[in-house]
């Protein structure tokens, strides 16, 4: 049995239902009889660790949840969960540092599965300047920082549009991972002012017809960004599987020029 007293069969059944699959669908995909799958879900048959991992793969379960189901079945976890400062992850941290530093003078940051800030380049200060200090105390949640009225929100020109985009993305992630912490974060962010969960674009320029930009006030100028997300391919570690690099690119020449100017070292007097 696992937390909340759920056994391996019940956990697998819950994930199957979360993914909207029938027993027949899953049994065909996993190469097991529907009768045997039914016995596993009802607790009449104890699945092997190999079968658990095969079912988990077909259900696209997060690595941490695969470990949970293995433990419920009486088996050891299959995937390690290291701290980010673990020496074995040093090459990964170095690679990430190279990516985000190499992205300068444009903002880039590394976040974990709960949107907590792990690494950032110096250009991210553009977004954090002016935020209330309580939002910048570690661990910094970048979604909370973005939408909180004491954070970036007052300077986001298209806040209803950007807010709707972030809430939709967070909800999709919560559904995919079935993570209670993400559902709680989504509920919290929905309570912040700034518009509805669904908002129409406030502009009809070329960029807005392709992606949702972030339009951000910097002094008397509005900077325009498009963002990309980079995940680690084929992760075998629980922690690594939840990491993502969020990179922002200028969406117009004026933003490009401003960011490059801001990155120039201050000329010495004399």
TrEMBL record:
InterPro entries with a match to the protein in the record: Cro/C1-type_HTH, Lambda_DNA-bd_dom_sf, MLTR_LBD
Taxonomy, superkingdom: Bacteria
Pfam family, one: MLTR_LBD
SUPFAM superfamilies on file: lambda repressor-like DNA-binding domains
Residues of the HTH cro/C1-type domain: 12-66
Matches recorded under PANTHER family: BLL4672 PROTEIN-RELATED (PTHR35010), BLL5781 PROTEIN (PTHR35010:SF4)
Name of the protein in question: Transcriptional regulator with XRE-family HTH domain
Source organism: Micromonospora luteifusca
């Amino acid at each position: 049995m696992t937390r909340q007293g759920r056994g391996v069969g019940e956990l697998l059944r819950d994930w199957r239902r979360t993914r909207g699959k029938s027993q027949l669908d899953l049994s065909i995909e996993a190469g097991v009889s529907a009768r045997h799958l039914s016995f596993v879900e009802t607790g009449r048959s104890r699945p092997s660790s190999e079968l658990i991992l095969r079912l988990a793969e077909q259900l696209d379960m997060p690595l941490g949840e695969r470990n949970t189901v293995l433990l419920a079945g009486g088996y050891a976890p299959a995937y390690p969960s290291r701290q980010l400062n673990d020496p074995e992850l040093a090459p990964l941290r170095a690679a990430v540092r190279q990516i985000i530093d190499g992205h300068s003078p444009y903002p880039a940051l590394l976040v974990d599965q709960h949107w907590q800030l792990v690494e950032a380049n110096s250009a991210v200060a553009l977004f954090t300047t002016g935020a209330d200090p309580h939002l910048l105390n570690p661990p910094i949640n970048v979604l909370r920082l973005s939408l909180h009225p004491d954070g970036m929100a007052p300077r986001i020109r298209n806040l209803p549009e950007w807010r709707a985009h972030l809430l939709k993305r967070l909800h999709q992630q919560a559904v995919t991972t079935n993570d209670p912490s993400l559902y709680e974060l989504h509920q919290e962010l929905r309570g912040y002012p700034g518009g509805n969960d669904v908002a129409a674009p406030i502009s009809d320029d070329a960029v807005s017809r392709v992606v949702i930009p972030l339009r951000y006030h910097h002094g008397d100028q509005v900077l325009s960004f498009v963002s990309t997300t980079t995940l680690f391919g084929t992760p075998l570690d629980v922690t690594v599987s939840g990491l993502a690099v969020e990179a922002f690119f200028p969406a117009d020449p004026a933003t490009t020029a401003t960011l490059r100017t801001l990155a120039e070292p201050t000329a010495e007097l004399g």
